[in-house]
Each structure stands twice: as C-alpha cells, then as structure tokens.
Amino acid sequence: MASVGSLWDRGLGLALLVAIAAHDAVALRDGRAADCCWVCNVSAVVLALGWISRRPELCAAGGIWLLPGTVVWLSDVWLANSHIIPTSYGVHLGGSALALAAPRRIGSAAKGWLWALALLAVCLVFSRYFLSAAANVNAAHQIPTGWEVLGDSRGVFVLVAGALAVAAAWLVSAGLNWLGRRHAQR
Q1: CA 12 to CA 113: how far, in whole Å?
Q2: What's the maximum distance between 2 C-alpha atoms anywhere in the chain?
C-alpha cells in the first residue's frame, strides 16, 4: 500500500499534468499545436511524470529546463509585456515549485544534467524535423529575434547556445543536487 506522502506526490504530479493539458488545449484550440512542443512544455510533462512515477531522473530532466525557462518566461512577461495566456502561469510557476521540491520529496539525480541534455536533444531534433520553420519552436530553424547577441550566424548561435545549455544544465543540476543533499542532512 502506498504511503500518504507518495499519494500526495503523485497527486501533485497529476495536478501539473492537468495544468499542462489545459495549457496545451488552449494552444490546440488557437491553431498553435507546435507550441505544445516548446522545451518548457515538454519539460513540465517529464517533471509531472517524474512525480507520478517517483523517478528522480525524470524530475531532474524536466526541472533543469523548466527552472531557467521560467526565468526567461517571466522576463518575457515583465520586460517585453508579451501576451501570455493565463494557463501558462500554472505550467511555469507550478512546475518550477515542483522542480524545486523534487530533490527533497522524490530524490536527486546525480547525473540529472545528462538526462536534461538528452531531453533537450529530443526536443530540438523533433522541432527541427517535424515542426514548421515558421513556428521556429526551440529555435530549431533560425535565430529568434532578439537572440542575435548569441551569434549573428546560425553556426555561431548553435555553438554558443549549446555551450550555454550544457553550462546551465550542469549548474541547475548541481543546485538541485545540493538541495537534495541539504535535505538528507537534516
């Protein structure tokens, strides 16, 4: 029989899945199916599945991209005054809360950054080969407007963005593992 804590954890994962389903339903309704494939959305699904299955690797892979993705998303909300659909708040803020709680509740993944890089690679390959160039999901086809600071050619952009992704994955993974170790010491 499952403990109350494990049932609660699975319920939180299920709640995040419901938030993602609501968010993606809006995108589908509005004819923006490709938006369901942004790494933040896919990461939130992986994170939710990690909570439901109680798999630290899945929580790490999803959380490692959702946390910095939420910072970028918040910047877009506050600085660029972008049109953000209300369901996006549940995915980004709720998902980030679960990403930060996962090392304590589910456990840490020592090589979470490698899982995260694998998830990013899957998202990029899928976006490049199965989604339209016009949607440019995950910057898989061209340099997004405003991101030219990372390189004015596609090759330079990919190298710089790739290096930043590896560094971010490792740093966020180290932070999540620190949270897990800190909790274990209590």
Answers
A1: 23
A2: 57
CA distance 51 to 25: 22
Residue 82's Cβ-count burial label (10 Å; 0-12, 13-18, 19+) is exposed
Helices (H), 79-132: 87-89, 95-105, 112-130
* CA–CA distance, 148 with 45 (Å, rounded to integer): 29
pLDDT in tens, 106-131: 999 999 999 999 999 999 999 999 99
Tell me: the pLDDT tens digits for 13-69? Answer: 999 999 999 999 999 999 999 999 999 999 999 999 999 999 999 999 999 999 998
Buried residues in 7-32 as b, exposed as e (16+ CB within 10 A): eebbebbeebbebbeebbeebeeeee
* Distance set, CA 9 to CA 26, 97, 141, 144, 180 (Å): 26, 13, 38, 37, 16
Q: Where are the domains of the chain?
A: 4-184
Give yes or no for a contact between 66 and 40, defined as CB atoms under 8 angstroms apart: yes
Q: How far is CA 95 from the centre of its chain?
A: 8
